[in-house]
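Structure ticket #2291
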Amino acid sequence: MIPNLSASSKFWKFLKIGQCYLNEILPQIGLHCHNFILLSAPYNNIGRDHVSALVDSHPELMYLDLHGVLENEYLVKILKGCKQLVHLDVRNCKGFDDDDDEILELARVASHIR
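Resolution: structure written out below.
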C-alpha cells in the first residue's frame, strides 16, 4: 500500500507495479494523481474489487497492461468502463476466452483500442 503520496505524486502519469493490492492503491492514485493515464500491473490476479477500483477511480485511463488472471466478466467491465483506452494489452492473461462473443463485439465497437 502507498501510505502517503508525496506532493509530486499529483504529476504522476504512469505506474508499473508488481503483485499488490490494486483495489487499495488505485483509489488513492485516483484521488491524488489527476494526470494518471497508464497502468502496467503484470502478475496480478485481477478480480471484481480490482476492476471496480480501476473503472471507478480511473475511467480516463488510456494505456493498460495486464498479464495475469483476468476473467471474461472483468475484461468486459474494463472495456465498458474505461472508454478513453487507446492501448490494452492482455496478452498471456488466463481466464477469458478471446473468441467470446461479447468481448469480440466490444472490441469491434472499441476500434480505437490497439
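Closing remark: The mean pLDDT is 82.
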